[in-house]
Write a structure and sequence with these properties.
The chain is built from eleven helices and 20 strands. With 431 residues, the protein is of the alpha+beta class. The two termini are 21 Å apart. InterPro entries: 3D_dom, MltA, MltA_B, RlpA-like_sf.
């Protein structure tokens, strides 16, 4: 943390210490955009490209990365990417890029609208709504320049590529029968204080809590919420499996299949501000199973054998995620990432925005989970993650359901990336 001016830092530290509210980075593994942006259905809106004169600007935000201009022929496997769903992703990305910059220093670094305006204008003007792959490829090669992401030594950066997905659970809007495990909406008394709004030196840091008299104190833990019916927020749905509901919270969003056959999305909205604690490690520490075997399937089996200890298990993790309900208008589109754009399976990644600004197309070269089979795709940097740090580090979005979950769970590969940036705009930059 950088030092603040004089007494300002001391006052904030005392506030955090006296109130016991944890001082934390913004929950970068969850969407961090304003509520209005989170709730907007960007994908359903038409693309509108403002004139350059309509677009404001904000101070440049230095990127930590180094980049080397290269050509399309140097991208391994570029010509073999079928580009399925890329144009839908590109147009949705333009919708996000053309949004005005809020100027909030607590937001992750994002690509500037002014840099992308000519490219998005050409996409709207020159390309049909449903182009074939050859048209998409030609457009991209004509308008974008690949920049290889380098490490600190100026060599091609290589880093870990993990995977994530959108869980699907069985749930009901009523507490009945097997549906006994609530997933909550954000409580009305939860405070989220964005310190970056007041002090740029604390950009990306927040505290969460509630008011108790004249003090701000930590918000209720998972155990406290479960134990006090008067303190329980409104339940959006009730799941039929406590472990699946728990893992949905870890992923940050998911789909709930209702008894009538309909599905709704539970989208991340906020959390109670407490740190995550692994229930798998607790089971291992208790001697219930080896740490290497603490998969969701094995934890579910343990819970079925020990129903009287399920709440004890869940309470090990004091953190609780709160959701909002979203309609699913296009089954192809997943939850919104940190950029407030719906993710498309196998076409979106979470990145470290200090190296890759949100909104940038990226060519990713890695391998399929637990194999040496090449996985080389054009993807979009539309999400962030608390563990996604460093040059060429990525989290690959696999989509929804069990198969996507299995792929995500196995994925821990090595990968490289190239940022695809507008020609004539110079090296990648951010605002």
């Amino acid at each position: 943390m950088k030092l603040l001016r004089g007494a300002a830092l001391g006052a904030l530290v005392m506030l955090a210490a006296c109130s016991s509210v944890p001082l934390e980075h913004s929950d970068s593994d969850q969407p961090s955009s304003p509520a209005a942006a989170k709730n907007a259905d960007v994908a359903a809106e038409p693309l509108r490209v403002p004139a350059l004169s309509e677009l404001g600007d904000s101070p440049a935000r230095p990127l930590a990365g180094k980049y080397q201009a290269t050509n399309w022929a140097s991208l391994p496997g570029w010509s073999n990417d079928d580009l399925q769903h890329v144009w839908k992703g590109f147009i949705n990305n333009c919708k996000g890029l053309m949004r005005p910059i809020s100027g909030s220093l607590s937001m992750p670094a994002r690509a500037t609208p002014r840099v992308w305006q000519p490219v998005c204008e050409a996409a709207q003007r020159d390309v049909p709504a449903q182009p074939d792959a050859s048209v998409v490829r030609q457009f991209l090669q004509s308008h974008l320049q690949p920049w290889r992401v380098l490490d600190g030594a100026g060599k091609a950066a290589s880093n870990t590529v993990t995977g994530y997905y959108e869980p699907v659970i069985q749930a009901s809007t009523r507490q009945e029968g097997e549906y006994q495990w609530p997933l909550y909406a954000t409580p009305s008394d939860l405070l989220t204080i964005d310190l970056g709004q007041l002090y740029p030196e604390l950009a990306g840091k927040r505290i969460r809590g509630k008011v108790d008299g004249k003090r701000v104190v930590p918000y209720d833990t998972r155990a406290q919420i479960a134990a006090n019916s008067q303190r329980q927020p409104k339940a959006i749905v009730w799941a039929n499996d406590p472990v699946e509901a728990f893992f949905l919270q870890i992923q940050g969003s998911g789909r709930a299949l209702l008894p009538n056959g309909k599905a709704v999305r539970l989208a991340y909205d906020d959390h109670n501000g407490h740190p995550y604690v692994s229930i798998g490690k607790w089971l291992a520490d208790q001697g219930e199973m080896p740490l290497a075997q603490t998969s969701m399937q094995n934890i579910k089996a343990w819970a079925k054998r020990n129903p009287h200890r399920v709440q004890e298990l869940l309470n090990v993790n004091p953190a609780t995620v709160f959701f909002r309900e979203e309609k699913i208008n296009d089954p192809l589109l997943g939850p919104k990432g940190a950029y407030s754009i719906p993710l498309i399976a196998e076409r979106a990644i979470a990145v470290d925005p200090t190296f890759v600004p949100l909104g940038a197309p990226v060519f990713l070269a890695t391998t399929y989970p637990a194999s040496g089979q090449p996985l080389r795709k054009l993807v979009f940097a539309q999400d962030t993650g608390a563990a996604i740090k460093g040059a060429a580090r990525a989290d690959f979005y696999w989509g929804s359901g069990d198969e996507a979950g299995a792929q995500a769970g196995r994925m821990k590969q090595s990968g490289q990336m190239w940022v695809l940036w507008p020609k004539q705009a110079g090296a990648p930059s951010a605002r």
